[in-house]
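Below is how a single chain appears once it has passed through the pipeline. First comes the sequence as given, then the structure the pipeline wrote out for it. We keep one example in the README because the format questions we get most often are answered faster by looking than by reading.
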Amino acid sequence: MNDDDPKVIDLDVLGATLGGDRDLIRRILEQLQETLRVRRDELHRVMAGDDPQAVHEVTHPLKGALAGAGAEEARRCVERMDDAARHDDMEGTRAAYGPAGSALERLEDALKEVVHGTGTGDGIV
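Resulting structure:
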């Protein structure tokens, strides 16, 4: 996989950062699931308006949470929204919203599979 095709979530990066502590990894991923749920609702709400500062207030911390969890695909998409919002570019923010929403949805699906073993993997729990 190259830099142009980031993983939905890179558990190797997260595991290395957390010293391979499976319980801690599980807790971080569960926390990320909750963060995504809340931030996606907030993002939907602020995108209904026309306030780039409000968008930035949602996307900036979300971007950090995604980076810390190794969710590079979603982080890049949210970063595009955040960059546009910081430059008062609602058109650019809106253009980045669709790809960001799709990436966040893929991440949520991956987290369900990894944390709770709902897919073909064993899960962490």
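Residues 119-125 have pLDDT under 50 and may be disordered.

See the next section for the split statistics.
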